[in-house]
Amino acid sequence: MTERTQQDDTGNGTPDPSKVQTFELIDEVPGTFDGPEAAGPDGEGPDGEGPDGDGSAATEPDAEAGEPAPREPGRAALALASARAAVGRNVRRGGSAVRRRLPTTRRGKVLLVGGTVSVVVLAVAAGVLVDARLREQALLATPAGVRDLEAKPTEQWSIDLENPIASTLVEMPGVLAIAGDAKVRGVDPASGEVLWTVDLEENLSCGPSALLGVGEPSTQEPADPLVCVTSSGEGGEREQRVTVIEADGATKSRELDAGADVVPVAGGGLLRFEIAGGTTEKRPVVVDKLGVPHLPKDFVGPDLTVGVEDAATGKERWSDTLAFGAPRPDSCITYDDSGAPVLDVAGALSWDLHGDVLEVQGCGVSGAFRLDGTRLDDPKDTEDPPADGVDTASFLSLPDGAWVGPDTAAADAAMANDVVHLSDGAAVNLDGHVLVPWATDGRDPGLVLERVGVRTQARSTSADDPGALLWSAPRLRATTLLAEVSGTAVVLDEQGTVRAIDLGTGADRWTLAPKTLSFGDMAWAAESSIFGAYTDGDTLLLPVSADPSGESSGLRLLAVDLRDGSVRWELEQETPYTQLISVDGYLAQVTQHGVVGLG
Prior knowledge:
Layout: H1 75-100, H2 106-140, E1 155-160, E2 168-172, E3 175-180, E4 183-187, E5 194-199, E6 203-207, E7 226-232, E8 239-245, E9 251-256, E10 261-265, E11 269-275, E12 283-284, E13 286-287, E14 293-294, E15 304-310, E16 316-322, E17 333-335, E18 341-343, E19 350-354, E20 357-362, E21 365-370, E22 396-397, E23 403-406, E24 418-421, E25 427-429, E26 433-435, E27 439-440, E28 447-452, E29 455-460, E30 469-473, E31 478-485, E32 488-493, E33 498-502, E34 508-512, H3 526-529, E35 534-535, E36 539-545, E37 555-561, E38 567-573, E39 579-583, E40 586-590, E41 594-598
Parallel strand pairs: 27-31
Antiparallel strand pairs: 1-41, 2-3, 3-4, 4-5, 6-7, 7-8, 8-9, 10-11, 11-15, 12-18, 13-14, 15-16, 17-18, 19-20, 20-21, 22-23, 23-24, 24-25, 26-28, 28-29, 29-30, 31-32, 32-33, 33-34, 35-36, 36-37, 37-38, 39-40, 40-41
């Protein structure tokens, strides 16, 4: 059973140690957490609304907070779990031994009380430390997890680069990979020590990595191994090579076809696109009096084969062919240097990769896959694109292994109606589109947030009541879910305001005015002015454009206290946003001069 996480007042940095749930921690199963329920004022949701938005008080029963167990418990986690179990056994055995030797004198009873209290205090302290360590492990396993954001960070180390803006930072297991200057450096993220260096070509593309400068959910797992594609020459003389780099710097390399269209993906894979019949030449298209381009009459485009191969060996893992269907003109057209539209099948091909979910769109072709080859859309539906005319990415990956796709049976296909496909095989039909968190603390809240028209809702993903409406906030017009941490959701609304709400009830907790984030009267640009989200469980770090109007460059790192919304600190930088990444909980950033470690 998945349990919904409520406000966690017992985590790191808790303001009131008396709130710690002491005895429950002793017998807790490692990887889970029992904490107090967080409720809105008088148990009501935002604006006094109940789950149906009718003004009735929320009736959701108290639920315990849950934390998913680590994917693969390592030696440290097993040792901690064993230690915790031993503490519990020793306390129980100690209690039995004391009861068998109860003193009868007043002095003996006083000594007994003191000794028992000492045993309990030590046991509770050990349990709290173990629980905090397990929470930290879950947090640092997320792409947005940071060790400590309490104080303003300073530069801990730096590495100069000849062309830093063109460089890419990629997280590997315990290693920061810096791809740039025709080489890849493996760096200790804590100290900045260069552990190894691999020399490559100038035209270098390594991954899997997040899209640069695009705020989006942090669903990218560490590259294990790192896959780099290099190219040299042009046209028929063009040469391509793929190099696979392990976390210790060991490499394997092989030649690729000159015209191969490939993209590095997770698990040492290489995503490959092949247009049937080879790349077609560009040609002009007819433009009507209104300037609308039209495809040639009876135009039939080529099929597209999509697949993933092992980057090191070239062995095919899977492939699928997307048959040419009914194309839209704009899915087949690009524009030349003079601005004239041209028919360009290869140039119009595009894809979105969100975690392990791939969505492909091209000239008359479309499809969606998991990176293991599982087809997510209907292969028999050749409409372009797959989301029935909705151009935004319609297939997404969620942090807990679930994925989101469009509801093809929805009454109004022109509106976004998502379906959340849970990892246990269950499906939750939404009334609108899901809000995917950019940052989490690694714990499953047991619900998803959705935007429906102008309101925000929460639906259960618990095995007991999947799809149940938990609460609805008619006046919460959330457009982006920045974070889900310790029972709190931090969202960005249509007015450019950052708002924190109780995940369990939808009740408001605090707001951050647009002027605090330099949005001013440019609230419409708020989402494109926030470049990511990072958290240590107590603080939310937002890299924000210093000037959303674009008239001047600069970046602000803004640290917001998750408990009350106060700004803990801010760091103004002259460099524009390039790339900021967390590796094993340590922050690294590309600057105008190279790469620096922040801490």
